[in-house]
Design goal:
Blueprint lengths: L15 E4 L5 H12 L3 E6 L2 H13 L3 E6 L5 H15 L4 E4 L14 H29 L2 E6 L12 H20 L4 E8 L13 H10 L6 H12 L9 E4 L7
């Protein structure tokens, strides 16, 4: 079947936006801002109590949100997350692949299970999100993929070899997606620096945990990333914001 590029018009102001990893940090910040701006948010995450609290808070402020427990390492679960939204809402506009983990450690710590977890969430979770949303974007001849990568995609530091590898992979996959995707599909990579979040709470290696305390002493709020995403999705249909790097002014590496 031959698909044609639709006529370029101004983007609808109210979008259906799916956000993975929405129970804390950047994901929660994205959900709150976009809902406050009038978009319908579909928030996914592992912690159902957090999802319930998020939904209650957003609805109390007049926002529109659905929530669903989601494990991004389960390909079928990610597909259901997307498909059920299309069934309920008729379409989807934006897929924000945000879910990520960061249990840093030196390679000689041999915490291979933690490395496996980073690959499963940070890389496979992204691939599953793309695979789930792509058929719907192609069918409706519109859509916007947003990947939350990291400044770790651009440089490697001790204890972060595996994490940086997964974030470089996220950057590379998303850049490849941008080049391969149909011309009506927009693709954006957002690479945050130090952001207030719970990511560092997953670090079990004592040395890595101690180093991270100093590194994270200057952090920006999740809403700084959410504002950047709001900017990217608010552009006209013929404008694709390909890449954004956002970090604290005080952060140099």
């Amino acid at each position: 079947m031959t698909r044609t590029t639709p006529e370029i018009t101004e983007q609808d102001s109210r979008k259906v936006v799916l956000v993975t990893g929405a129970t804390s940090g950047i994901g929660e910040g994205i959900a709150r801002r976009l809902a406050a701006e009038g978009h319908h948010v579909v928030a996914g995450g592992r912690r159902e109590d957090r999802l319930t609290s998020l939904a209650q808070s957003i609805r109390a402020d007049g926002g529109s949100i659905d929530v669903r427990r989601l494990d991004v390492t389960d390909r079928a679960d990610v597909a259901r997350f997307v498909d059920e939204t299309v069934t309920a809402r008729g379409h989807i506009d934006v897929m924000v692949n945000n879910a990520g983990v960061m249990p840093l450690s030196r390679l000689d710590s041999l915490l291979v299970d933690e490395g496996d977890r980073m690959v499963d969430v940070n890389v496979k979770g992204l691939l599953y999100g793309i695979a789930a949303a792509m058929p719907h974007f192609q069918r409706q001849s519109s859509g916007h993929f947003i990947t939350i990568a990291s400044v770790g995609a651009y440089s490697v530091v001790p204890t972060a070899a595996v994490y940086c590898a997964t974030k470089y992979a996220a950057w590379a996959i998303t850049e490849g997606l941008r080049q391969e995707a149909d011309p009506f599909i927009r693709v954006t990579t957002v690479s945050p620096g130090v952001v207030e979040s719970e990511l560092a709470d997953t670090i079990t290696d004592p040395g890595a945990a101690a180093a991270m305390k100093d590194y994270r002493s200057a952090a920006i709020p999740p809403d700084a990333i959410a504002r950047a995403i709001s900017y990217a999705i608010g552009q006209p249909a013929d404008v694709d914001v390909n890449e954004l790097v956002i970090r604290p002014v005080r952060q140099r590496p």
